[in-house]
Each structure stands twice: as structure tokens, then as C-alpha cells.
Amino acid sequence: MSDNSERDIRMSLRYYIARHLRAYEPKYDVRMAIEEDAWERPCAVVQTAGPVIPTNVGYRIASNIRPFVAYVYPARGENPKLAELEAARVESVLKAAIQKGGHDGRPARVPVFDFDDIPDEGGEEEWAELEASGDPMAYLTIMDASVDHKADPDDETLQTVWINIRLRWRAKGEEYKPSTTLQSVGVDSGKVS
Fold first, then answer.
1. Where are the domains of the chain?
2. Which of 90, 124, 128, 164 has its CA 20 to 30 A from that of 56?
3. Coil/strand/helix, residue 173
4. pLDDT given at position 122
């Protein structure tokens, strides 16, 4: 089993968002990347939005933080008002995913599963096996998230919903280096050396 690899974290967030969107609308295609003209609505793409920021919190333990963004493209609305309503519904689905949680109802937690044998795109058939296999390896903490939506400037029947999310997780930190420790303390004629 892997040890909270970067890929497992990205794929777990993809899985988490897909699970919530598909509970609302089963047709959602959730990907790690989309190519021009190779997708159709409704779909979503989950991407990293910055580097991992590690902070050592103890002996060989680091607390890592990384921002992510998911862009959700709901189905085209029949008119601008219906498109706006659909975007607001998707926004509420994403907010509920954060507030209520998913796996065992853990709020502000994303379960991390081992995705070693599952492809980056597709692999949905194996997702059910992951959940059936038992508990996740760990949980990512949702530090903060914001959700919003906006109409396409050229076509108001097309909306885009996005969620900016910062995740934190524990990982192995830097190895302890004895050369950086204080070797001795001495007192000589009232001076500390």
C-alpha cells in the first residue's frame, strides 16, 4: 500500500468530488485534465493550484498543505435563469460535500485510498472496490474552501462552478540530522560557551 503519495491525494480528491457530483447527477465525468474538444457537459476537472508546502511538526513528521481547484461544467441550461439555478445547485452540492463530509460522514475530511492500480482517467469501476475494501489509509483535512460560479460571457446558458480548496495531510518529514544539534555547553570564568 502506498504512503499518501501525491497521486493518491489527487486521485482521492477527484474520487471525493466525483462521488458527490454523481450522487446529484450520475452523468458527471470527473477528470484530472481535459483536452480541448475532448469533453462534454456535464463534467468536472480537478487540478493542483500550487506547490506542496511542507512544515515539519515533529521528529520525521511533516504537515503538508496544497491548494487544489475543481472546475465543474454543468449541463447547458435551457435559458440563462435555469442555467443559473443549476449552477447554484451544483455549488450547494460542493458546499455540502465539505460541511457534511462523505466517507462515514466526516466533515471537512477527504478519505485517501490507495490508487496504485487504478488509471488516472476512468477507473470508476474500481472505486466501488476501494470503498468495499474497508477503511481509507488516512484522511485529508480541508483547511478552507470557497465555491462560486459564473456565466460564460459569450453564452449565458453555460455556467462554470469552481471550488478552491486547501488540503492538509501528514507525511514523513525530513530525517533528523545529528550534526545540527548542540554538542556541549560549558562555563569558563563566567562566560557561557
1. 6-192
2. 164
3. coil
4. 67
CA distance 184 to 123: 57
Q: Cβ contacts of residue 39 below 8 Å, gap of 6+? A: 29, 31, 73
User: Letter for the amino acid at 156?
Assistant: E
At the topology level, CATH places domain 6-192 in STM4215-like (3.30.2000)
Quickly tell me which residue has 471537512 as its cell: 108
Of 42, 23, 18, 45, the closest CA to residue 34 belongs to 45
Contact 42, 74 (CB under 8 A): yes
Total count of residues recorded for the chain: 193
Any bridge partners for residue 145, and if so which?
Answer: 165
Q: Which class for 133: exposed (0-12), middle (13-18), buried (19 or more C-beta within 10 A)?
A: exposed
As a whole number of angstroms, the distance between CA 72 and CA 69 comes to 10
98-157 pLDDT tens trace: 988 766 678 899 988 888 777 777 666 777 777 667 677 788 999 999 999 999 999 999
- Give pLDDT, residue 1: 33
Cα dist from 179 to 130, 175, 176, 182, 186, whole Å:
44, 12, 9, 8, 18
